[in-house]
Amino acid sequence: MREEEPAEKTPEIMYERLIKNAQEILVQNEDRGLIMPDRGYYEGVWLWDTGFIEIGEAHSNPEAASRRLFDWISQAQWKNGFVPHILFLDKKVERYFPGPEYWQIETSSNRPAAETSGITQPPVLAFCSWEVYEKLKTESPDNAKDFLAKMFPRLLAFHQYLIRERDPEQSGLVSIYHPWESGMDNSPRWQEALAKIPVSQKQIIEIRNLRRDVKNLKNQWAKEGKNDTEALEMALSMRPTDEDYARFFFLLNFSKDRQYDDRKIYREIPFNVKDVLFNSIFCASNQSLLEIARELKIENSEVAQIEKYLEKQKIALEKLYDPETNLYYDFDVKNQRLIKRKTIAGFMPLITGMVPKERAERMAKIGQSEDFSLNKGKFLIASTAKSDPNFHSQSYWRGPIWMPTNWLVAKGLEISGLKPESEQIKKSLLELVTEKGFYEYFDAQTLTGLGRADFSWTAALTIDILKQ
Ligand code: GLC
What we know:
This protein is mostly helical. Helices cover 51% and strands 6% of the residues. A three-stranded antiparallel beta sheet has the order 3-4-5. Helix 5 packs parallel to helix 13 (276-295), helix 6 (141-166) packs across helix 13 and helix 16 packs antiparallel against helix 17. It is globular. The structure holds alpha-D-glucopyranose. Alpha-D-glucopyranose (GLC) binds at residues 37, 42, 46, 48-49, 183, 185.
């Protein structure tokens, strides 16, 4: 006789278990009161990871989430308002590359006391602070107001930095000057702009020798008595190539050699792009910053400047829309044209709430098409469309599915009035992590978990989806 299905199999119990597992990962990845992306490789605390992680954490402990957000920004932020993409907890790191010794931020008089990187990342912090505030408010309205009051000047200074230094021409769009600033490191969006950067074969070889991820794999295999060249190449095919790395280092050195002086960098750097993802997030974060100002009853010329910029931003974002393909694209300042590569970034203006509903519907259909959702019956958007010549189902941002970008599209669809489509993405994300685990990213074709296991933002955003 067939036994009855055990009670543990009910969706409620499975989801309770999923939440518990996700929470355990976040505890395991905590270091000195902050949460790292994983335990084992990423030695530091990243900007946009932190924002997403605290959105998830705020469901069970909004007080701790708000404390960590403030601790993070108050240690990481530079004197000119700039917020770096990594806050290192130690002066020297062993596994992550490039660590503090490469950034050498001491060349800048704006550096904070802590060790950090010298480039930024998508400015999610105001947007995330508002989400954390809303959860904290129901638990403790006084603490919630205090949190906003502490965050506001820092968030304002960051947004002012972006407007002042990254959009000196007042176009309504801010520039990134390193692919890492986009958060989508090796996206094919950067191919053309990067091609302008000359790298020699010698530099490419040097980079391979510097890469700690390569060194660590080799050491590990040597200990096991293996010399597995093939396996190394296989592992590396999931990460940016040595040639990409050589160009990433050219740009990193470019800023460092100019003492992180934005005026000089902006004028001279060969890579200057108005990234559609970065600017959509900045637009959403400007809206959150204004909500924070209203909640704190702050009305002054600085707030008025943000309001004015937001209006400009909405007009400028609209110019990134291409009616022929129904997606948005980045603008390459050096080449003076749109970068027409189909990636998940093209959906990001949905989170600004300014995409008309019938356009959002067309965009959702593109997301569901076989070009982006490669798995039948699931709505999971690949980081790069299958039709792109650089599509690779396992290579980092050239195909794999990532939790945070899919979460952003789900959020955007909901904001744009497409709740059923948004729910479809969330359901597919839950099935994905239930079946495969909380991986850093997933093969776009087979959905195999790739990169690091037990990844913080994957776990935290799962909690957010389940607790909503
Ligand atoms: C990789 C990702 C970036 C992320 C970081 C830490 O560099 O490309 O988006 O913030 O890892 O998780």
